[in-house]
Amino acid sequence: MKITYIGGGNMAAAMIGGMLTQGFTGKDIHVVEPDTGKRAELSAQYGISTSAPEERIPASQVIVFAIKPQQFRAVAAQILPQVNDALVISIAAGIRAETISKWLNGYERIIRVMPNTPALVQAGISGVYAAAEVTSDDKALTERILASIGEQVWVDDESQIDGITAISGSGPAYVFYFMEALQAAAKAQGFNADIAQKLAYQTFAGAVKLAINSDDDAGTLQVKVTSKGGTTERAIKALETSQVRSTIIAAASAAAARSRELGDELGRDTE
Ligand SMILES: NC(=O)C1=CN([C@@H]2O[C@H](COP(=O)(O)OP(=O)(O)OC[C@H]3O[C@@H](n4cnc5c(N)ncnc54)[C@H](OP(=O)(O)O)[C@@H]3O)[C@@H](O)[C@H]2O)C=CC1
Ligand SMILES: O=C(O)[C@@H]1CCC=N1
């Protein structure tokens, strides 16, 4: 088994870190990355092999494109002579399978995956779309890779990957934004940075654990914290006055729109 990542940045590192704790070994994974420092760090931390883009990649069953969307076309041209009959997985936001296929000279064994960074701690969730030419073995192998880093949701309609990108791909950033804001609020209440972080992190961790283990939905759980005439009611009222809920929905909608826009922009770049 050899899985080669093209691009050794944030998301590749998160996926590799997760995979290595569950079912894969350093020998299974290779990374192509231009930055010497990142290559050294990846091989020291994970015991994987690495190479620079101008070097040949090892024979691979799977090639995962983990570069930025804007880098994809040039990198695809570089890698194309070495794809042979590997399964191609793209984790890039926006870029449609049809565009990737054009950039790979008509190659069609392509699966799009939209992972997220909690993959590093096997708590990720990935959206997956398989192009028509993908075999059942390809799907089974992809399932195995993704099972090692968390949950997965397969979609038949490729456009749903834009929505998954907006919710769970970008989603950890929204959660970290809220966590950071709660820490700032704790500091404003006079707590030092360590205690502020502890209060915020454990509140998130506890609330998520409770929600996952509860038959109640999130709305009901919120009501159970909100005593009539109490403190939470006042806070929720302030959030509603500032339209925080609808702003979160609008933010995710903006992310989905950007994903579609990337798909359109880069999809035109095929001549
Ligand atoms: N970060 C996230 O949470 C998520 C990201 N994604 C997707 O994953 C992809 C990567 O994102 P992310 O990891 O955040 O980005 P990064 O910029 O951290 O990683 C991309 C890496 O690719 C390297 N690279 C550039 N050119 C080449 C080349 N010719 N050959 C090999 N590697 C090259 C870059 O090097 P250099 O910096 O020197 O250019 C960089 O280290 C994107 O397409 C993104 O849409 C998907 C889900 C979540
Ligand atoms: O911000 C981005 O474009 C990528 C895709 C999802 C998360 N990070």
TrEMBL record:
SUPFAM superfamilies: 6-phosphogluconate dehydrogenase C-terminal domain-like, NAD(P)-binding Rossmann-fold domains. It is found in: Cytoplasm. Keywords: Amino-acid biosynthesis, Cytoplasm, NADP, Oxidoreductase, Proline biosynthesis. Its EC number is 1.5.1.2. It catalyses: L-proline + NADP(+) = (S)-1-pyrroline-5-carboxylate + NADPH + 2 H(+); L-proline + NAD(+) = (S)-1-pyrroline-5-carboxylate + NADH + 2 H(+). It is an enzyme of class 1 (oxidoreductase). Residues 2-94 form the Pyrroline-5-carboxylate reductase catalytic N-terminal domain. This is Pyrroline-5-carboxylate reductase. It comes from Deefgea chitinilytica.
